[in-house]
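We emphasize that the prediction below concerns an isolated chain of 274 residues; any contacts that depend on oligomerization or on bound cofactors are therefore not represented. The input was used exactly as deposited, without trimming of termini.
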Amino acid sequence: MIGELLVLYNTLFNYFLLKFTQEITGLYVKRSRLIFSAFCSGLIASILHHSLLGAVLSFVILIGVAFSFNIQTLLKQGTVLFIATFFLGGLLTSLLPFLLNQSDILFFIFSTSIAFISLSSLHLKWRKMKQEKIQTSFVVDCELTLLQQSYHLRGFIDTGNECVEPMSQKPVHFLSYNAVSKNLPSEFHDALLKWDEKNPYQLGMFPTEVYPKIRMLTLSTVQKEKSTVLAFRFDRLKISGTTNKEIHDEYVVFTRNDVKYPQDAQMILHVLAL
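Result of the prediction step, given as a token string:
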């Protein structure tokens, strides 16, 4: 009975480790193959658990059966698996005094839960770091010329922003009001604050020269709610960083809620800015 439990424990932990390695390295493998590899490795580890050769053989079988027997796999998937095994082994060893005081059923529940939760947390942390790294590559420096005034801003190219001005089909970008409010022309700034979304077509507060640059847009929020906003045609937008280009005569929408702007950006650019 002890032998069967040992095989079961090893198989479960091996499967968690293989699944973690698969997610991290992005290599698709059928679940049945992962389970079979985990079982084969767990069986060898259970039989030769006092042998260094058994540990090495168990590791090679675990990697080889799951991902294939070649040097590249041993280096890539093997490295991730070794680090994960070292992490999980250290964690369980530190908690061993607590685990050994439990019954067999509680020992099984606690140890497998710890393995699953710790590896899942590690995977989520890795995904977040990877996402941050990807997002950073879309951060650019912007020089926006609007109403004959220039603003130096931190921009973020949002691949999900496909908003366009309906008439011209030109891209629409989003500009943080807080980032530029102090430098906006006073007459335009006052008009912007006076404009009422409930009476959107009343534009008498804006200077006459601004009229030709104004467009009315209807945007849908994530909650499917629609809102009317003003878009203003800018003169030039110079982008430097991941991509280098100059854009002319496109549109910006001022937004007050810039807390959700990623990477501390002050301007959310259209996907075509790439």
